[in-house]
Every structure is written in C-alpha cells, then in structure tokens.
Amino acid sequence: MSITHAHAQEQVARGADLLDTRLPGWRERINPVNFCLSDPDRCVVGQLFGGYREGLAFLGITAIGAYDYGFDPDSDDEDEVEETWLEELEGTA
C-alpha cells in the first residue's frame, strides 16, 4: 500500500521544520533540478550536508527515524514523498 499525499505532507513538514530549526536557510541550498530522493548525494540531506549519514548525524536522527521526517521513504512511497519535497521547495506544500 502506498502512502497518502496527506501522510507524505506530514512527513515532509516534520522534516522541513527540523531543518528550519537546525539549518535556517536550507531551502536556498537545494537544487531542485538535481533533486532525487533515492540518491543519498542528491536528496535533501545529501545536498545539504554532502552525505546522507553526515546529515543524519548533524540532525540527531537515526536512519530508521529518517522515515518520519520524509528523508527515507519506503521504496513504494518514494515518488509521492519526492513530489511533496518538491512542493515544499516551491512553497506549494
């Protein structure tokens, strides 16, 4: 079963709030053209911190906990969560 858009929005909002707190101005540092949630170097965390693991450590969350913030969705949900991140970056979420 795939994630609902509403659930993806909740996860992404939680992730965006965490980034707002820990790394103000983060939105301006993301290249949406290069964005790919399934690529650890081109996802939100990878683009901001130069590496997925480094970013999670900075944010103080585990790889398992990353799901709750929309950073690491289930494979069936990647497209929906990625689209929701792009909406967040465009200010339409």
- Biggest sheet features: none
Detail the poorly predicted runs.
none
Order of helices and strands: HHHH
Derived from helix and strand composition plus strand pairing, the structural class reads mainly alpha
Mean pLDDT across all residues, rounded?
A: 94
Based on Cα principal axes, name the global outline. Answer: globular
Give the count of helical stretches: 4
Helical content stands at 40-55%
Count of beta strands: 0
Q: Report how far apart the termini are.
A: 22 Å
**Proportion of strand residues:** under 5%
* Radius of gyration from CA coordinates: 12 Å
Structural domain tally: 1
Structure explained in plain terms:
This protein has 93 residues and is mainly alpha-helical. It has one domain (5-90). It has helices at residues 5-22, 44-49, 52-59, 78-90. The chain starts with a helix and ends with a helix. The mean pLDDT is 94.
